[in-house]
Design goal:
single chain; alpha/beta; 6 helices
């Protein structure tokens, strides 16, 4: 359904992104930010899903500053590789890979001539929170189990865009105590908890929980429908 395009960031770094287009005129755009497994089949399917909902969807490859063409599965060796790649990107001098998100937002805004939302999962959930706080042109942000956003230094960031956050009650990576701390620090963010585990939105993983995924998507689509109109 989609295609790969080239993006050029303001620092002249060239990246690629998967783009899925709606069948008719786009009612806005959604930047889809990957897990630690790259722009793989699941992330492409997520982008395709937003395109079917009428949005121009773009998923930038967030590992390219360290390694190009990352497409991992969900086996233990993939997890190990993804953790290492994430650490490499997180270790870049500031602003890290944020210019690649900015490039995707800018491209999407120009291409659809409309508002841009950001949605991300796992590491992408953390990147989504950073995008809501630090990237220009974001009109709405929806973070899914963003590892790191409930702790410093991300906890002290201030969102410039309306934001919602989805967390899982059984998540061993993000404690409920830290979620409560995030809620206390950011009452402006609508926080939703689900009877599920980390990664509940991904139907390629054992942690997939269909009911939670459907409810989170319904809330996200309603949120984008309001904020990107």
């Amino acid at each position: 359904m989609g295609q790969m395009i080239e993006l050029v960031a303001k620092d002249h770094f060239k990246n690629v992104a998967y783009v899925a287009r709606p069948s008719g005129k786009a009612k806005g755009a959604v930047v889809v930010l990957q897990e630690i497994f790259g722009v793989n089949a699941h992330i492409k399917a997520v982008a395709d899903g937003y395109a079917k909902e009428g949005y121009l969807a773009i998923a930038p490859a967030m590992f390219t500053r360290n390694k190009a063409d990352v497409d991992l599965g969900y086996q233990p060796e993939d997890m190990k590789a993804g953790v290492a790649l994430k650490a490499a990107i997180e270790g870049l001098p500031q602003p890290g890979a944020l210019p690649d998100i900015q490039a995707a937002v800018d491209w999407a805004a120009h291409e659809c001539n409309g508002k841009v939302g950001v949605v991300g999962y796992c590491w992408g959930g953390l990147l989504t929170w950073r995008a809501a706080c630090l990237v220009d042109g974001v009109s709405a942000a929806a973070s899914y189990y963003g590892g790191g956003m409930t702790f410093e230094p991300a906890l002290s960031l201030k969102s410039k865009a309306p934001t919602i956050a989805h967390f899982a009650e059984k998540d061993q990576h993000i404690t409920l105590e830290s979620v409560e701390a995030f809620k206390a620090r950011h009452p402006e963010v609508a926080v939703y908890l689900y009877d599920a585990d980390h990664g509940f939105n991904c139907d390629h993983r054992g942690a997939y929980e269909g009911k939670a995924a459907a409810q989170a998507l319904e809330r996200t689509l309603a949120f984008f429908g309001e904020k990107l109109a």
